[in-house]
Predict the structure of Cytochrome c.
Amino acid sequence: MKRMDAEIRRKIALGIALLALLILPGCGTEPPDFRMNRVFAHKMEIHGAELDTAIDDTQIAITQLFGTPDEPLLPAVLTENPDFQSLIQLENLQRAAGAVASDRDGTDRGLFRKHCSQCHGISGDGNGPASSLLNPYPRDFRMGVFKFKSTQYGAKPTVDDLVRTLRQGMPGTSMPSFHLYPAEDLTALAQYVIYLTLRGEVERAMYRDAANELGYGDPDQTPQDRLLAMELKESDPEAYQEQWDAIEDYVVAAASRWIDAPEQVVAIAPPPEKIPAWPLAADATADQQAEMAASIARGKALFGGKVANCAICHGADGRGDGQVNDYDDWTKEWTMRNGLDPKDPEKKQVVREYLALGAHKPRNILPRDMHAGAFRGGDQPQDIYRRIVQGIDGTPMPAINLVDQPSGSGLTTGDVWDIVHYVLSLSQTGRGEAL
């Protein structure tokens, strides 16, 4: 009952925030700007860099490359290279960007602002007006990390992966399904997410080099030593062009990872022939029922075993009550991996500094309760298979080591399917259904 009351309060608060969002834009506000990633910049500064000038230089550069929320651009280094022209179509970018509107023929525009910015923010930073009310927080696209996809651990998703996420929504979160929307709208939104990610990754790369490679904060730094010094365009055009070429290299590096994604799709191995398909048909034979029961039993043993070691996080019974004190990578980046334990009372002021710059208040990432039946990223057997084999980027869940023969160093594809069947059996038990 307490959980239900909390959910009702959360939905009321979310409704108020969204109502405010609808009212405020009519009050003479200025055109929106992309918010700079000051959380990441501050992380660099904590280690000794002074990036005020670097932030200004970066803002000039990425505005020239990517434009503004109302007038987006695609970097020329992408549009002029045939290898990248399929990544984002300008027509889709323009449809997804800008203010909410409709053409005379009924074509919707401003799709991202209409459907996504309330939670994900205009900049795709996960800091929309409703974001602080949501659990989990909306995704910050700027890190370039995506959880649920068909590609291997560490790779970018495909456009189809992004469209699939839009179409099915994210069960157990505030992200709804957009399956009723036209396919062209979903493709435009998916490509806009890629655009926001590219912009964010280029910004981060520039801060990283500003802190680690260039002399920002050094009184002897010259304009030639900066990321981009606009005054050099007239006084030293050769040096200016070198700076611009280096910036375009950041763009190409980020875009190349998206182009490579289709080649990194992980094939799903079929389950062993003797095991029937999940779920069992109503007229399954006794032998088929016995084979599935044996697979589930093996999966249970593997779930709690030392190789798969699922139980260490998900708990011995799969109720998500194992490791509950960890964080996702979006939080870890500026906390634990930055030498900052957010639970340390002596670090409260440092945490406040990050929160003031746009970081979300740290929350522990909770392992999935398999009994709840809400599987983000899909609840089909092949979806669970991918989560086990590929891991979940941005979370503590790693990819497993696939082996050809049973060993203490990894799992066979048959082992994985046994775990899949065990996990799905728990979800049916949680919903009160027969196995």
In short: Confidence is low (pLDDT under 50) at residues 1-10, 19-27, 430-435. The longest strand covers residues 101-102. The first helix runs from residue 2 to 23. The domain at 286-326+364-430 is CATH 1.10.760.10 (Cytochrome Bc1 Complex; Chain D, domain 2).
